[in-house]
Records
---
Amino acid sequence: MTVTWEELGWERVAAGVGRCRLPGWDCTAGLVVGAGSALLVDAGSSLAEGSRLRALAEELTGGRVTHLALTHPHFDHVFGAAAFAGAEIFGAVGMDTVPAEELRADAVRGGLDEATATEAADVLVRPRHLVCGEWTLDLGGGRQVLLANVGPAHTAHDLVVLVPGASGSPEVVFCGDLVEESGEPQAGPDAVPSHWPAALDRLLDLGGEDALYVPGHGAVVDAAFVRAQRDALAARFGVSR
Ligand SMILES: [Zn+2]
């Protein structure tokens, strides 16, 4: 790396793993650096934001963003995907069926200006690789990540990204909006609350006690935080153990 994460406004989470908190909705975008490859996790809320993310990621890695994982079909996580048309794009199975108009309308309700939302919806890029269960992605240089479809929960199509620890670094789990730190987890009309606690149980099984959990919105948390949020969601939605 020629520049540091911090110099570009990113947070280094572990060796070769970082994230930035995007303006507006405080949405996380993650980056995992491989050998001659790089995986971005989520693409930002507009074409322009996707382009900015791509430029920053490529400055950090000195190479191209070769892979993009989309954690779920919400505008603030996917509207920048068209800026990564050359990358291999992954998402949970079925996320390609969510109508672009639905995302556009939700974006406008969420405060994105109408022209920006319409532009992003018009060129919306769908994942070419649809994950049901688990998918191991080899980024080279001994760097493998696991994409796991743990939903439905926050949406019908929730994907998490697990990055095993390397050279003394902790494991990192990109949780999408299954976990939020900066506020209550958002459960919209497309959420499946009855399954949400089970999805977090699965997330904790995969990540374990010592992993760093990166929420879709907010600061990095630990397993105890995720477990507490799981219990709060179970109580909120009346889901028994
Ligand atoms: Zn969301």
---
Amino acid sequence: MSKVKTSFFCQNCGAQYARWQGQCNSCKEWNTIVEEIIQKSEKQSWKPETTTTTKASKPLKINEIDSAQEIRMDSFDGELNRVLGGGIVPGSLILLGGEPGIGKSTLLLQISLKLPYKTLYVSGEESQKQIKMRAERITPNGDNCYILTETKTQNIFKQIQEIEPDVVIIDSIQTLHTDYIEASPGSISQIRECTAELIKFAKETNVPVILIGHITKDGTIAGPKILEHMVDTVLQFEGDRNHVYRILRSLKNRFGSTAELGIYEMLGSGLREVSNPSEILISHKEEALSGTAIASTLEGMRPLMIEIQALVSTAVYGTPQRSTTGYNAKRLNMILAVLEKRAGFRLGTKDVFLNVTGGISVDDPAIDLAVVAAILSSNEDIPIGEGFCFAGEVGLSGEIRPVNRVDQRIQEAEKLGFTTIFVSKYNKIALKNTFIKIRLVSKIEDVASELFG
Ligand SMILES: [Zn+2]
């Protein structure tokens, strides 16, 4: 019996140490380093004791490399395809992170049932019966989908050799363990080794692997940042459990942009792809209410019309409250200061609440102008004209700055039946003959006087 070998790992960033210490040198977190048993076996392969004839790769001249090689597999899910940049790249490792209970398993199970390829769905979390029950709620077919309840990687690879799937899904990486390491499942060294085995498998066979990873309270993929470095693509599934909408975002993508966004609606029968999100993000009401304004924003290449709601009221308590959902709180404070200093609105003693509908958080600075309009509308208690929308960034001196791809924003607004859009005077607009009226503004005072006279 060989001596048990241990090592120390930071549970936050995965850094390895020879002995325990209070603070991690690499991520500077305190008390995150714990001892884990590692006992590496000599031979280490995803193939269980068979010949290991790995093809060593050969250098090629750059002109010999086939540039059209990135063939993608259609995932038969428009939103997932969009976020991945056109589909699943064979041999890639995709990590899908998200809080427990947000719907990661539902999403991947639903996709595996739809795929026309042979798919192996490995679950360490639920029994085959439980998964079958869930699958029946989603769709009655699923002829190509195999379900395996297993947590040991060596057993999983044995099944893979028999079934020869085209896609492998692992639910979740935190439940896996490999024989080559003695630490408990979910520990840094187990997660790292199991992922390494799966990467080796994916690269050697060209079969894509999708991993589910649970996220801790502070929003990082549980345990390891290291996982994010190892895989090709990191997707995050987010949303509020109280809202029906879920957002699929890519945080890292070796094969495409990270700017794209997928939107789903959670239904009793599974997740519905929302292909025209603007329609759901704008609430439809009978009468015009003060305090709401529509922003024409862009998420990746896709334009989105988003409703901003503001409530401005006299502060009941000494210090006025400011609270936002889906919009940067510092940015709100800046906008309020600009409104007070540059346009003379006395908001210093008012409570201001701001909400982006649908539970989405928006980074696009073009939303500023709609925020200003919503705040002023609530403050004046005058509804904004019907069919109005906004796209502009607000600067510190109260100027309305131009936004990128303004033509696309205007077109989307027009497509959805808006009649007037407010944009910066400094934007160069190439569009001709639009039905929608384009109002050019340069300062927030202009906006205020145009809207409320
Ligand atoms: Zn660390």
---
Amino acid sequence: MMRIDGQCHCGTVTYEADVEPGDVGICHCTDCQRLTGSAFRVTVSTRATDFRLTGKMPRRYEKRADNGALRLQFFCEVCGSPIYTTGEGQDAETVGIRWGTINQRKELKPHHQIWCRSAVDWLDEVADLPGRPGD
Ligand SMILES: [Zn+2]
Ligand SMILES: [Zn+2]
């Protein structure tokens, strides 16, 4: 297990958690594309009992996912950063922490991906794009 902490962009919502470094996944579903405004989402899953909010409470948005399960999306009401997700019933025992909010995120690489059916078709081309270290 690895101890992590994290925060939203403005610092209103903060948390700490214990995670297994292997439990990092990419989701290519269309809900994640819309909710992040990006091509895919990276999430670290852990038990709800290993996740603790340490700042102000995030806001909640409920969405039924592509697979029919009700997902609860928690985000900072000040800056809008997605913080974590959980579900109802048995799904409530797990939280999915949004990778970009984790302070130790560089140590947490993805180990699997889901909803590849809706993945963008240019992912393999990113490594070949011209790039520079800053903006
Ligand atoms: Zn915030
Ligand atoms: Zn998704």
---
Amino acid sequence: MKLVILDRDGTINSDSDDFVKTPDEWLPLPGSLEAIARLNHAGWHVVIASNQSGLGRGLFDVASLNAMHAKMHKMLAAIGGRVDAVFYCPHSPEESCNCRKPLPGLFEQIGARFGVPLKGVPTAGDSLRDLQAGAAAGCEPHLVLTGKSAKGQPDGLPAGTTVHKDLAAFADFILQRAAKPLAVAI
Ligand SMILES: [Mg+2]
Ligand SMILES: [Zn+2]
């Protein structure tokens, strides 16, 4: 199974310091949904791993979160794209869970659910903690310079991190790499 794991806020949709709390506030970044659709058309399954501490902080409820994702799924379907699943951490930082990024719990849940070894699975996010979580789970880290990294990349990126302008550039990278013919030893 060809799997990529994506962060949500700041990677697929605009982030907000005030949290994204309603479907109206859920606005895709330019080209991000198309990037997911292009990955899908090349056979990649796309799954989201997202910290949603706004739930634990009482800023919105699960019904609102589901409504945001219904909007996302509908917009994706309109362009032939699909996200297979959204895994989220609902906890506030004080709850000391093991699924809030930078801890790898969400990624491990995804690997278990899909029965996929996470070693080398590409993961893209706009924050250091996204890549720390992915790298801790064995994934291949990719930073997008949108959202939290729109003003520049953070220090301390995990070894082997590849940096891309945005999710469209990440998709280009994945698709071009897959299209390269294998070297043939004679
Ligand atoms: Mg983010
Ligand atoms: Zn959690």
